[in-house]
Amino acid sequence: MAAEDVPPPLEGKKRRVGVMTSGGDAPGMNGAVRAVVRMAIAKGCEAYGIYEGYEGLVQGGDMIKEMQWDDVRGFLSEGGTLIGTARCMAFMERAGRLKAAKNMVVRGMDALVICGGDGSLTGADKFRAEWSGLLEELVQTKELTPEQTAPFKHLNIVGLVGSIDNDMSSTDATIGCYSSLARICQSIDYIDATAFSHQRAFVIEVMGRHCGWLALMAGVSCGADFIFIPEKPPSEDWQNEMCKKVAKQRNMGKRKTIVIVAEGAHDQELHKITPDQVKDVLSKKLGLDTRITTLGHVQRGGNPCAYDRMLSTLQGAEAVNAVLEATPDTPSPVICIIENKIVRKPLLDAVALTKSVAEAIKAKDFAKAMQLRDAEFGEYHSVYRISTAAELPALMLPPEKRMRIGLIHVGAPAGGMNAATRAAIAYCFARGHTPIALHNGFPGLIRHHSDEPLGAVRNIEWLDCEGWASKGGSEIGTNRGLPSEDLETVAFVFKKYNIQGLFLIGGFEAFTAVSELRKGREHYSAFKIPMTCLPATVSNNVPGTEYSIGSDTCLNALIDFCDACRQSASSSRRRVFVIETQGGASGYVATIAGLSIGALAVYTPEEGINIKMLDKDIDHLRETFAKDRGQSRAGKIILRNEKASKTYTTEIIASMIREEAKGRFEARVGVPGHFQQGTTPSPMDRVRAARFGVRSIQHLEQFFGKSKDEIAMDPMSASVIGIRGAKVQFSAMEQTEKYETDWKDRRPKNEFWLGFKGIVDTLSGRPK
Ligand code: ATP
Predict the structure, then answer these.
(1) Can you tell me whether residue 624 is helix, strand or coil?
(2) Where are the domains positioned within the chain?
(3) Which residues pair with 731 in a beta bridge?
(4) Interior CA angle at 760 toward 754 and 762, to 5°?
(5) Residue 303: C-alpha distances to residues 292, 394, 526, 548, 560 (Å)
(6) Ligand 1 center to 710 CA (angstroms)
(7) Residue 247, CA atoms < 13 Å, CB-side half-sphere
(8) What are the boundaries of the region N-terminal catalytic PFK domain 1 (predicted)?
(9) Is 179 part of any known ligand binding site?
(10) Mean pLDDT split into 10-residue runs, the chain, 768 residues
C-alpha cells in the first residue's frame, strides 16, 4: 500500500489493542485471547486478533481482524489456539519486521499482547527495541508519512508466556504447562497399571528440549524411579547410578519401574541420552522387561485444565491493564505468576534470564542452570530425589537426633493427602526418623486399642506408601472428629507411643485440631511437641494459606462437569444451568470455577443473593439470548455456592429463570456434590502436596532438642503451612486463629480472591 492510501491516524478514536498467539500452541492460549479481547472492549478499546502469529502481522490484510465480544465466546474451554500460530521466518528478518510495523500503523494499533514462548517474546522485544528505527525507515522510503507515524511513537508490547514446557524464567508457570503435565500424568497413571501387572519397566519420553520441568514434575507426581533432565544431568556413569536406584526399589518388592526422559536429556558431557539407551541398560543390566512410550504431541493437545483457564484469564486481563497504564518510560512487561501472585516483570530481563539457562547448560555449568530456574525447581528436584528412597547419606541424621513423627488426616478427603503423606514419610526415612501413621483421624486414636493387631497407631514401611503419589482419598483413613472429643485419651496415646512431632493434613477441622491441641498444652504435656497443619480441602477455606491441596482437583472436576452440561445444551434448545458448588461458607471454588469456565454469574456466601441481583441477571440472560445469532446454543452457566443464600436455593433460582424466560430459554439445575472431590488428584495437587509434605517435616525438625516448655513457648511450634502471595511460609497458629480466622463462617477473614469476582463479571458482561 502506498503512503497516500493509508488512512489518517486515529485521533480521538478508540485505542486499538492487538492480540496474537505465537510459537508452539499451548492449552490456555484461547483463554488469554478471550480475556484480552473482552477486557480491552470493557475498558473502551477496540480489540484486533492477529491470525497465525507473526505471519499475520507481517502479511496484514485479512490476517488482522477486529474481534467483537461474541467472537471469543466458547474460547475458554478449547485447546490449542483458535486464532492460529505459525513459525514465521520473515519476522526473524528486519524486512519482515518493517512490514509488521507498517501494518500496525495502518491499522492504528500501538499495543500488542503476545502469548508465546521465549522465542516469540524475544522477537517481540526486538520489535519494540527497533520500533522507532522501523518507523523512520518507513518514512524515509515513503511507505508512510511523518504525520501517519507521529501518533505511534511508542509501541506497547506486553508478553504472556504461553508454552507447555514451562521454560521461561521469571514465572513459576507458563500458560499451558499444567495442562500438558496433566496429560502426561494421566498417561503415566495408565502405564503404571500395566507395568505393575507385568512387573515391567517403562521408559517414557516427554517434551522439553531445554527445560526439564515437565519431566521433573511428572517424576514427582507419579513417583518415578529415575528422571533425566537437561539442567541436572546424571553422572557419566548414569547407567550404574540408575540401575542402583532401580534395583534398590525392586529388592524392596516394587513390581514396576518408571523412568522419565526429557526430550533434551544428556549426560554431563552433553552426550544425548535417548530412551533406547535407557531401555537397553534396564533390559541388559537388570534383566527387566522394558518398553518405551513416547508421548509426543498428545502432550500439547486437549482441553486446558482449570489452572490454565484461570491463569490465562487473570493474565490476559492484567495484560490489558498493563497496556493502559504504560508510559513511554515503562519497560515492556511480561505477565508472570510467582506462587499465587500475578506480577509484571521486565520482558527484557525475563528473556535474558531464560537464555542464560540454555547458555549455562551449553557451558556445562549445571549448578548455575539449576540456580537460574525459579526457586521452586530446585526444591522439586530435592523432593524427587528424596521420594525415590535414594540413599542420601548427606541427609541422614545421627541416631540421637532422630524423631518419632505422627502423621494424621483430619476432615473430608482431598486430592493430594496421600501424596503429602508419602513425601513426608520418604523424607522421614531419608533422615532416619520414624514415621507413625495415626489411622482414621482423632476418633481412630480415641477408640484405639493397642492389643488389636490393626490398632490406629502403626509404623509404616516404604513399600506401604510407595504407590500413594497418585492415589485419591485417604489411605490412612480420615475423620471429621476433633481431639476435643477426648483430649485425655489423645494425650495418653501420644505419650504411650512417644510422638515427638505431629503432621496433620486436612481442612478446617485439621486447623481446628491444631488449635485445640495447642490450647490443650496447658493440661497435657504430651501436646508440647511441634505440630504443623497442611491445609487439604476442596473448599480452600483454611486460614494461613491461599491454596489448600485438593482444591485444584476439585476445580478440574467441576469444570469437567460444567463443560459437559454446557455441551449437552449445544444440540438442544437454549439452556441455562444453575450449578451448585461446594465450598462451605467460602465462595472460592465457585469464583475460580467461574473464572475458568466463563460463568455468567457467580453467587457466593460472602456477597449473598438478593432479588435485585437475580432480576438484573435474568434481564442480562434475556438480552444475551435475544441478540444471540446462534452461538449461544451451547448452555450458559450460573454457579451458586451451596451456602450463598438460605432463601434462594439452586432450585428456586432455576425456577425463577424458567418462569421469567417465558419459553425463550430454559433453566436446569446441576448438583455435582461429591463428584467435586475428584478421583485421581491433579498433578498440581500432587506436586505441591509432596513439596509441602517435605517442608512440614523439616519445620518440625527445627524443634529437636528443645525442652517441652521451650516448645510450648515458641509460637511457631503450632503452625500452618501455606502459600501467601508470592511466598510459601509457616504461620503461627496462635496469631492465625486469633487475627485471621472467621470461626463462625469457617473461613479466613481476608480472602485473597475476592477481587477476582469483578473479573468474572466484567468478562461475562454482567451488568454492574
Ligand atoms: P515454544 O516455546 O513453543 O518453542 P516459542 O515462542 O519459543 O514457543 P519459536 O519458534 O522460538 O517459538 O518462536 C516463534 C516465532 O517468534 C518465530 O517463528 C519467529 O517468528 C519469532 N521469533 C523467534 N525468535 C525471534 C528472534 N530472535 N527475532 C525475531 N523473531 C523471533
Answers:
(1) helix
(2) 16-174+304-358, 177-300, 395-549+681-748, 554-677
(3) 720
(4) 115
(5) 26, 43, 50, 24, 10
(6) 58
(7) 13
(8) 1-389
(9) no
(10) 42 85 96 98 97 97 96 93 95 97 95 95 93 96 96 94 92 95 95 90 94 96 95 92 92 92 95 96 96 92 94 97 90 92 94 92 93 86 86 88 97 96 96 96 86 79 91 95 96 96 98 98 97 97 97 96 85 83 96 96 97 95 79 78 98 96 90 90 97 98 96 98 92 97 97 94 92
The sign of the CA dihedral 285, 291, 297, 303 is negative
Amino acid at 479: N
Q: Alpha helix locations (H) across 234-286? A: 238-251, 275-286
Assigned superfamily of 554-677: Phosphofructokinase domain (3.40.50.460)
Closest CA to 565 of 492, 466, 672, 641: 672
Q: Is the CB of 263 under 6 A from ligand 1?
A: no
Q: Grid coordinates 477476582 are at which residue?
A: 756
What is the interface pTM, i.e. ipTM, of the complex? 0.96
| Ligand 1 in reach of 23 Cβ (< 6 A) | yes
Q: What are phi and psi of 599, to 5 degrees?
A: -70, 150
CATH topology of 16-174+304-358 equal to that of 554-677?
yes
Asked if residue 116 has its Cβ within 6 Å of ligand 1, the reply is yes
Domain 177-300 has CATH 3.30.70.3270: no
pTM: 0.94
Q: Is the CB of 24 under 6 A from ligand 1?
A: yes
- In whole angstroms, give the CA distance from residue 227 to residue 229: 6
Q: Which of 91, 180, 207, 210 has most ligand 1 atoms within 8 Å of its beta carbon, as the pocket-test mutant?
A: 91
CA angle in degrees (0–180, nearest 5) for 458-463-467: 105
